[in-house]
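Hey, quick one: can you model this chain's 3D structure?
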Amino acid sequence: MRMLRVIGSLDPADGGPSEGLRLSAAELARMGCETEVATVDEPDSPWLGSSPFKVHAFGGRKRPYSYSPGLLRWLRRNAAAYDVVIQHGLWNYTAYATSRVLRGSRTPYFVFTHGMLDPWFRQNYPLKHVMKQMFWFGSEGRLVNHARAVLFTSEEERRVSRDAFFPYRLNERVVSYGTVEAKGDPQVQRAAILNTLPALAGRRFILFLGRLHPKKGCDLLLRAFARVARAHPDLDLVMAGPDQTGWRRELEAIAAGGGVAGRVHWPGMLRGEAKAGAFRLCEAFALPSHAENFGIAVAEALSYGKPVLITRKVNIWREIEEAGAGLVAADDQEGVNALLDGFMANPQFGAAAAKAARDVFLAKFEIKRAAASLLETISAYA
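Sure thing. Here's the predicted structure for all 382 residues.
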């Protein structure tokens, strides 16, 4: 099978969608499925240089709406050469281009929404929601309503997406999603994170890894950490991730106001051995999001056998709770306080949750299972 995947960007700093695409493409290649990618990244973007699959980069990501007429023209000429097309994400020019070219064509196409129909956005950005509803009438709604299937990464994501926009006539399918199993030399990886953050030597720490964005609940986590830090003087917090909105200064002020500025570490985006080392050394992984369709970093933490502390807005929370692989609470200050309080108050829970984390990862979130699920779904509807 020859597959084209269309995505706004392959920049690793953009989080889960680009990472999930890379990982599943590698696994699908082992199953005999050839992947190519079309994107509006600039052709000289550094993250494209080591791509294991062919990338067609048309530029336009830095323009309003990621406008890229080159992508539209290329799709018109080439989309029919592929057995299947997968559109990743909504609300940018790639979705518009895919809709214009693929609707009504003989080439089967599918859409990954990647959480972009979550009602959190409607509640917190009502004016943007009105604009998106207009786009829904003209582009996105037509795209998803005519797709062979719209792919969700959890039952919870499918459920919460249904009331976002109208008309809503999707052929909904839930596919497995995940990441690769933890690998590499643990000693080298631990040394790498300590080389990046020497102040962590001899310290325990909670790890947050993701974009520093209001959606992620970073402010709630900092305030909750300030509370438990008084009773646990050996505990630190690592806030790892890119600051794409300029929010870090405000977050640092929250840490300072809570008296824990010296115990919160901001390494930026962690990669490679340092990222693996952070997972290996942390006490637990925390993701107190207000909206998260999957949370691939959660699956990464599970692969390392780490308990996860998440909110009920991380859409795999039911699987985590049922497995006993972490703690789950509401996405407000009281809920996030309860996550850290509960974890720190019960050391025995951490050991049990660590084993459960590995078990649920292997059962539900390992990349081989995810790739097989995607291929099975596509084959059924292509």
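One thing worth noting: The mean pLDDT is 95.
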